[in-house]
Amino acid sequence: MALRMLYLIFLRLLGLLVLLSRSGEAKEVELLSLRHENAVLRRQLAVRPRLTWPERAVLAALARHMPARLRRHRLITPGTLLTWHRRLVRG
E strand or H helix at 68, and its extent? Predict the structure, then answer.
């Protein structure tokens, strides 16, 4: 599990380097397309997806940097983050 977490962190750092080299317009287009894809997939799913621990850690870390008004409407809500934290502390 730790190796997978390191791998995901490495991928995110590489992605950040690529993102820094893009123009603002390209970032906006990608963001809009990803939001649309998420909306389509949410409509098709009957249940919420199950995430692995490393996926949860990455999403929780990214959610900290997201504005509160956007955080409320994402897959990972503040309540979800608190529930994950309680489970982690309990275990």
Answer: helix 68-71
CB count within 10 Å of CB 4 equals 12
DSSP symbol at 72: T
Cβ proximity of 63 and 81 under 8 Å: yes
Cα first-last separation, the chain: 16
Q: b/e for 15-30, b at 16 or more Cβ within 10 A?
A: eeeeeeeeeeeeeeee
pLDDT tens digit sequence for 64-84:
777 776 666 666 777 777 888
pTM check: above 0.70:
no
Name the nearest CA neighbour of 51 among 75, 82, 16. Answer: 75
Token output for 53? 């621990």
Which residue reads 């909306």 in tokens? 39
Backbone angles phi, psi at 74, to 5 degrees: -90, 170
